[in-house]
Amino acid sequence: AQTVTQSQPEMSVQEAETVTLSCTYDTSESDYYLFWYKQPPSRQMILVIRQEAYKQQNATENRFSVNFQKAAKSFSLKISDSQLGDAAMYFCAYRSVRGSQGNLIFGKGTKLSVKP
Amino acid sequence: NAGVTQTPKFQVLKTGQSMTLQCAQDMNHNSMYWYRQDPGMGLRLIYYSASEGTTDKGEVPNGYNVSRLNKREFSLRLESAAPSQTSVYFCASSEARGRATYNSPLHFGNGTRLTVT
Question: At a CB cut-off of 8 Å and minimum separation 6, what does B51 contact?
């Protein structure tokens, strides 16, 4: 079974600085998808960015980018020019392409604080 | 754009009581999911439904039942609530239907905070 590990329960960053959140996963599959979700205090789950395993190019969405290292099974999220609104829980998630489930397997999350 | 709607938003139950959490999506998605979120545990899959008329167990199904009433609605029932079921429950839906659509994300409702005393 696949597992997702986020080794940093909490992180802190100064406003306007850059922070990287770590995520590693364990799988024997070669084709899969990876996601980062943000959960602010409102509890809403918001998609931040996604990556397809067969694409070597790292995904980017405005200030958010990933460092996808397939051989190392690593999928870190970099937030540039951090803003107060980036303060939230961040979840890394894995999706297998096998079967009909389509569900995401989540890590335990990293709580990001942004200091003004 | 309602997306995924969950009701209720909050609920307090006594041990042994039953209740049903309702979920509806208006995006014509085939797949629907129920997750629970506990502090320090992330989100764990309770049940999922890959299409209307089918349901399957996820990682933590014990103590729960589900019904995929139609394509829009997927309900979660607690027959005899226990304090261990105190959690935040999320319903989600996705267009995921085979390899070609697995880059589509899960769309989540706003969650139900359930407390069992």
Answer: A100, B30, B31, B97
Cross-chain residue pair A95–B96, CB shorter than 8 Å: yes
Mutate one of A37, A43, A61 to test the B interface: name it (highest B CB count within 10 A). Answer: A43
d(CA B34, CA B57): 10
User: How much is the pLDDT for B38?
Assistant: 94
Using pLDDT thresholds of 50, 70 and 90, give the confidence band for residue A76. Answer: very high
Does the beta-carbon distance from A97 to B105 stay under 8 Å?
no
**Torsion (CA) B94, B92, B106, B89 in degrees, nearest 10:** -160
Say yes or no to pLDDT of B2 above 80: no
**Average pLDDT of A97-108?**
82
Q: Do residues A38 and A48 lie in contact, with contact meaning Cβ atoms separated by under 8 Å?
A: yes
